[in-house]
Design brief:
By secondary structure, the chain is of the alpha/beta class. The protein is built from 7 helices and 12 strands. Helix 1 links the parallel strand 1 and strand 2. The structure holds glutamine. The site of glutamine has 12 residues, from helix 2 and strand 8.
């Protein structure tokens, strides 16, 4: 059984990020995998899952989510091989420290060598990132500027928008995947959902021809034409 868990979606889940869980579950089921999608609400124990999802959030809920998750066994589950997909505020709290408005600095979960400071202005708008042969598209809205430690690879190179710092977006280290893109990012970029699933399931996935896949191809065609 493949279990996918949305973590504190009431705190972290702006711009429909909870949809990432639905996309992963549907695409796993489409490949014949028995899949369970669960949510950890405030006050719940951390569920036992293969994939944990963290969404975006405003500064206050982001700090609260970090405090709540720091008291769970998330770090040891990641050390045991669980996968995490984190978006925006979720990305920031996986790191060592992050800053919110007012410049106060908070300890993150410390799962990777990543730090986020506060930029002079917010980054709001379309985000387009080159990830190998693929494009990743989405919407960003954040005040953070993220710096990756020497051993942490970015998810991709920014072609439009800010991402981490105007040059790179997100990161991929061990079983942690992160991006600044909302959308939900996996609905807009089905290949990204399949890359995460393939890494968890341990085999290459046959392509799917859902409406989301077709829309993704159309979006890429129009971007390369423009
Ligand atoms: N609060 C964070 C910031 O502004 C994250 C925002 C978000 O998740 N959209 O940088």
């Amino acid at each position: 059984m493949l279990t996918i868990a949305n973590l504190v979606p009431d705190l972290l889940g702006t711009y429909g990020d909870g949809g990432n869980g639905l996309v992963l579950a549907q695409r796993a089921r489409g490949r014949g995998e028995e899949t369970l999608l669960v949510s950890m609400e405030l006050g719940d124990e951390l569920p036992d899952a293969s994939i944990y999802l963290l969404g975006g959030g405003e500064d206050g809920p982001q700090r609260l989510a970090c405090d709540v998750l720091a008291r769970t066994s998330l770090a040891s589950r990641v050390a045991d091989g669980a996968t995490v997909l984190a978006v925006c505020a979720g990305l920031q709290i996986l790191g060592l420290t992050f800053s919110v408005e007012g410049d106060d600095q908070y300890a993150g979960l410390g799962l990777c060598d990543v730090t986020t400071t506060r930029g002079a202005s917010r980054s709001v708008g379309e985000l387009r990132v080159r990830v190998g042969e693929r494009l990743l598209v989405g919407f960003e809205n954040h005040g953070g500027r993220t710096t990756l430690g020497a051993g942490v690879a970015p998810l991709g190179r920014v072609e439009h928008g800010r991402g981490n710092d105007g040059t790179s977006d997100g990161f991929r280290t061990g079983t942690l995947w992160a991006t600044y893109a909302h959308g939900p990012v996996l609905a807009q970029n089905p290949w990204f959902a399949d890359a995460i699933l393939a890494s968890v399931l341990g085999y290459e996935l046959e392509p799917m021809g859902t409406v989301a896949d077709l829309l993704y191809e159309e979006r890429c065609n129009s971007l390369t034409r423009s």
